[in-house]
Amino acid sequence: MIKSLIVPLLAVLVFNNLSAQSPAGRNKYNFNSDWKVSVEDHKEAGNLNYDDSGWKKVTLPYAWNEDAAFKKDIVDHPTGIAWYRKRFKIPASARGQKVFIEFEGIRQAGDFYLNGKHIGLHENGVMAFGFDVTDLLKFGNEENIISARIDNDWEYEEKATKTKFQWEDKNFNANYGGINKNVYLHITPRIYQTLPLFSNLKTSGVYVYADKHDIKGKSAVVHSESEIRNETNAPQLVDYEVSIYDPSGKIVKSFTGESATIAPSGTKILKASSLVRGLNFWSWGYGYLYDVRSTLKIGGKPVDVVNTRTGFRKTAFQNGMIYLNDRVIMVHGYAQRTSNEWPAVGLSVPAWLSDYSNGLMVESGGNLVRWMHTTPWKQDIESCDRQGLMQAMQAGDAEHDIEGVKWEQRKAVMRDAIIYNRNNPSIIFYESGNESISEQHMQEMKAIRDQYDPKGGRAIGSREMLDSKVAEYGGEMLYTNKSAHIPMWAMEYSRDEGSRKYWDDFTPPYHKDGAGPDTYRSAMTNTIQKRTDANLYNRNMDSHAVENVKRWYEFWRERPGTGKRVSSGGVNIVWSDTNTHYRGEENFRRSGEVDALRIKKENFYAHKVMWDGWVNPEKQHLHIVGHWNYKPGVKKDIYVISTADKVELKVNGKAIAGGIKSDGFLFTFKDVEWKSGKISALGLDLKGKKVCGDTIATTGAPVALRLKQVERPTKFIADGHDLALVEVEVIDAAGNRCPTALNMIDYSLIGPAEWRGGIAMGSENYILKKTFPVEGGVNRFLIRSTTQPGTITVKATSEGLKSASITLTTSPFVVENGLSELLPARGLPSKLDRGPTPSTPSFNITRIPLSIVSATAGANAGSALASYDDNELTDWVNDGETSTAWIEYTLEKAATVSEITVKLNNFGSKIYPLLVTVDGKEAFKGSTKTSKGYYTLMCKPQSGKTVRIQLIRAADAVAASSGVEVSGKTLEDGIVRSLNKARGTLSIIEAEIYESIERNSKTSVRK
User: Fold this and answer.
1) Residue 522: its pLDDT value, please?
2) Helices (H), 770-811
3) How far apart are CA 428 and CA 392, in angstroms?
4) CA–CA separation, 189 vs 24, rounded Å?
């Protein structure tokens, strides 16, 4: 019998510990311990008496090829057959009950055996699945053996259809093979609430949602629906009841639902609902969660209780904007690979590290993570719940729409993912494709959402879908899209790369933008290609931070409040450096705001400044980019990123003239001469009041090393899977980190632990090495526990520096007969730092849109409507002659025109000299600039009812800023047509005409 772990804990810790035992006898066990693995296709390993005594002992989750993570190019990740086996015993008290095994996921496909019998197959490599093993188990002191043959071949084909899964590619999804996610064992009564595992079990579990929200009144109607299955031999009259518990363990509300008689082998959904008051609504940076316990009763006694951890929030997607708890929120966050990997470990990290990484996203100001190409594993989804980080959940794809079997595979994964994850409040968007899909396919995906999650408050859409009548959101890869209808947000913007090792042009090793190899591997063809101009993407931390400011500002200047058509923001690709397709010197992508060990880059701080608000920044921040350790004679541009209206810079107290503001948040001070001491910056408001500041000081010479464990909320446990993250710094005599240090460090480890190491630029990225350098004066490494608790000592030495050591202690982990009552996310708290959704408006109205009622043009007048139809896949274009390159708009009423925002075709590669008149009076004469979408013409205010936009002379072609992507394809630059080559072409995708807010005093300026 499993020993009960009875420890006096605070109620809040009980809430977070998720005890495996249910008051009605339902048990959920951690099934990760005591596995063995062998990377070989043992033909008889599914047999009961197979000898696995020589196999490697592991604790799941465990990818057998984890050593390749960041050591090898994604295309070289080892593949093949690996067998996993485990011995376990089931308590005698479970005899006569139902037993299920739940796998959160594997890569790629697996055949599973229990006590020598084949129990099932799972193949999609993405989603959770389960098996009913009741009839094959032995109970009490008799031993059971489960075996799994896992195949992670890149070319694996679904057996029934002989078809490869679309997302099973070498471009986007790092191949961490085996049982790489958590496994659980469930024991339930014979009449029970099912598990949300549609594949194999064909069950949908519990569905909890809320409606009729009153955000200010802190109330909502909470609904709980459970699928009930009766596997007894007689009809059962059951009652359904629900209790809601807050994080302290206090009952918030209990209510009774339906009663029903369920026939033998019958299945029925029972429902309960009630108005609940005093609710705290889940929000950005406020991961407030409840336990909703749904209880089945027979004769007044509970027979099955299911605990669903969830949160309640209100959403809406309308007027081109996203509403969370009645407040408009602009998306700013990250597009992240679902592998979310770490060096020499891959994706299979303990839950606390998922919280650490996802929590850093929130700390940087991120409010949404868009998981790319495949559904994230449950651990990351639940982590985002706790961190208050919204999610866009993909199903499974690569690129492009597809037909036939592959489309049916995508639909099946979306169905399974929705059923499995529909109670997680952080999921706000369901993404049906990484590129546009047909309207018919979008309708099919929407039907799946409507069947399994009709009330969850989640929009379903796809990348692009700019003119869809079905999708509920859209947005291109990296361009600015706007809409007055469904929200549009960029899904992979700012695709540049830059290693943490490279500060700027003046710091060793003196990496300049564009430096890098002459070739790269194409993600589309998987062949070596000649490199395009690397100046478009290969950066150091200085220029990468500046570029991220520029890219974000293009979305932010079209934010809610700037008109009827708005941008809902965008997500930066990627969050952390990732072992997927790349263009630079390393075999991994270096676009992260943090590196692979989650050490912050300068981009992190740039976002933290700009993103501390729902739409507008709500707190004042300032960050000086870089460090202040140079050689005499160095003069460099100093970049300050700030929300302030003005910035003053000083070196050792002496004011530095200049400070040119651009791109909304960037202040540039040209050719500042380095002097040892301090460089400081003050942010001032329009009245000259100090609102924020930052200081950087010159550090002394390196003298010592320092080791410290990255703080974690739970103990380091000896389960054979837990990891400690340790940071090493090179410091001066005062204990300050030396930002330019590149010292090589040697490590030694004593005690019950496994060295997993760190990462740095060099041969095989130093993966698993015990000698590797710091970069920018800092690095980190991972240590994995064994199953033996004890004391671990790590010592770090480096020539010429005082050594350092750190002692870590692992705590016992209780496992009996292969089962543990401690679940992987035990004790992890929710992040509540940002507090509840503010009741104040999130944006100002900055200008008033003027309605266009008709238009005429010098040519193709019949298509003039396309230039103001709120559809970015249509445009008006003249016939290529300069004389016809004009369009004239008639406004609904006379007004004073102050601004005109246009999306011109070839917006990234052409500069258009334009003349704008209002009732014949000149309002603007000048040239546009290239952009990622929209450009605003600041006009001399002119009153009238007709607005004419005219091309003065032929547009000037410039080097396309959009460049060439990793795949080798040229990125889009508007609407493609042969007429674009004509010298006198003017093509307008969208035009918007505005009046200044000062001239319309009747309009509310808050929203």
Assistant:
1) 62
2) none
3) 6
4) 9
Q: Would you call 652 exposed, middle or buried from its count of C-beta atoms within 10 A (0-12, 13-18, 19+)?
A: exposed
Nearest CA-CA partner of 585 in 525, 526, 507, 531: 531
**Maximum Cα–Cα distance for the chain, whole Å?**
94
In angstroms, what CA-CA distances link 59 with 89, 175, 712? 17, 19, 21
Q: HEC string of 695-749? A: EEECCCCCCEEEEEECCCCCCCECCCCCEEEEEEEEECCCCCECCCCCCEEEEEE
Going by C-alpha positions, the residue among 102, 596, 502, 24 that lies closest to residue 306 is 24
Tokens representing residue 541 in the block: 């931390």
For tokens 């969830």, name the residue: 310
| Token pair for 234 | 């007689």
Which residues have a catalytic role annotated? 492
pLDDT at 514: 72
Six-digit token pair at 235?
């009809």
- Regarding pTM above 0.85, the answer is yes
Structure tokens that stand for 428 in this block: 């706000």
Distance from the first to the final alpha carbon of the chain: 60
Is residue 8 pLDDT above 70, yes or no?
Answer: no
Query: What is the token pair recorded at 338?
Result: 């679902």
Residue 320 CB neighbours (<10 A): 23
973-987 exposure pattern, b = at least 16 Cβ within 10 A, e = fewer: bbbeeeebebebbbb
Residue indicated by tokens 């921040």? 621
CA distance 63 to 79: 11
Which whole number is the average pLDDT over 64-90?
96
- With b for 16 or more beta-carbon neighbours within 10 A and e for fewer, the 499-526 pattern comes to bbbbbbebbeeebebebbeeebbbbeee
Cis omega before residue 196 (within 30°)?
A: no
Whole-number Cα distances in Å, 115 to 185, 564, 623? 16, 64, 61
